[in-house]
Write a structure and sequence with these properties.
mainly beta; 5-stranded antiparallel β-sheet
């Protein structure tokens, strides 16, 4: 008997993994095979894994992110931007290459990664040049212009 299982949750909001295996008596044996990583840009990558897993990530791959470096974007930032021009990645204790923001796409804020408990912070809107991406896959920019904004 074989099975197909789907898992939601995981390391990112919107993450999904599908794994295949076989049932041997009362035990489930995962098939040693390849893990397929699928991204919202349509690209895939693969790596050796336990079973034939498919991981659905709710963001674009690193190749597509890196292709956007140097692009001018409209953004929203919750919280006063650091005067140094460099955000701090609090999880790793490191400095980002610029200021961490959320991109505005077609008038809608594209919240990615960890964005909980930010509604009490002041909101800023602006334009910037992408210089990299943060650990939660959010754009990191060199700010060109920014102003405090009303919500929404």
């Amino acid at each position: 008997m074989s099975y197909l299982a789907s898992f939601r949750g995981g390391p990112y909001p919107g993450y999904r993994a599908i794994t295949r295996g076989i049932v041997l008596g009362t035990r489930i044996a995962l098939i040693v095979g390849m893990t397929i990583n699928r991204f919202t840009c349509g690209h895939e990558s693969s790596e050796p894994g336990w079973g034939n897993d498919i991981h659905q990530y709710p963001f674009v791959c690193s190749e597509c992110r890196n292709a956007r470096i140097g692009e001018k974007i409209e953004f929203v930032r919750h919280g006063t931007p650091p005067s140094s021009g460099y955000s701090v990645n609090h999880r790793d204790g490191t400095t980002e290459d610029g200021v961490s923001v959320y991109e505005v796409k077609n008038g809608t804020i594209d919240y990615v990664g960890w964005y909980f408990d930010i509604s009490d912070r002041p909101m800023f809107r602006g334009f910037g040049i992408i210089v990299g991406f943060g650990s939660d896959h959010e754009p990191v920019v060199k700010i060109l212009s920014i102003k405090k904004s009303r919500r929404g």
